[in-house]
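Page 37, continued from 36.
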């Protein structure tokens, strides 16, 4: 796919490939090589990863009110960016899939599902770190990993099913449009 071209269904990577790339990037956020639709999903991951880190900072018991306020403002800005990325992902899918107007409506769009997927990849990564050898409560976190991996596999299948169903005319989605008023 060259810049400016509308993506086709063939340009939509299988979700397992998306997850593999997200897992590489969450381990090494400086690794930013992808463009196109996968690049948008990676950008969404990086935005959500930054938000995850800011939320941890805002919850720090040692954080004073000024730090919490500054962090919350940064989170608001990231949320605005997150909404833009979800819209861009949905627009790419909408251009790539010939949706059937009469098909039943899906409850969420691909962009919204990929937003959930990026957060789950981040959660798995941090849980794996917390379950690492010598970490406090490592056993508690290790016990969570099978559940998180099942959730990740289920979400992967659900996204592939959504994309396939929309492409085959069995379901359709409405591209997400954020109507929030940030910085107002």
């Amino acid at each position: 796919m060259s810049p400016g071209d509308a993506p086709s269904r063939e340009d939509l990577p299988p979700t397992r490939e998306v997850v593999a790339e997200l897992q590489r990037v969450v381990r090494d956020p400086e690794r930013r090589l992808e463009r196109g639709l996968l690049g948008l999903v990676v950008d969404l991951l990086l935005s959500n990863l930054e938000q995850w880190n800011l939320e941890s900072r805002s919850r720090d018991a040692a954080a004073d009110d000024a730090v919490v306020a500054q962090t919350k403002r940064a989170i608001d800005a990231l949320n605005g960016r997150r909404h833009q990325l979800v819209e861009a992902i949905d627009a790419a899918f909408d251009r790539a899939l010939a949706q059937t107007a009469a098909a039943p409506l899906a409850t969420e769009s691909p962009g919204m599902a990929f937003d959930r997927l990026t957060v789950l990849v981040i959660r798995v990564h941090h849980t794996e770190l917390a379950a690492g050898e010598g970490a406090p409560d490592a056993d508690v976190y290790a016990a969570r990993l099978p559940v998180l991996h099942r959730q990740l596999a289920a979400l992967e299948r659900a996204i592939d099913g959504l994309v396939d169903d929309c492409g085959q005319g069995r379901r359709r989605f409405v591209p997400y449009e954020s109507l929030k008023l940030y910085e107002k």
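Residues 13-168 form one domain. Flag for discussion at group meeting. The chain has one domain: 13-168.
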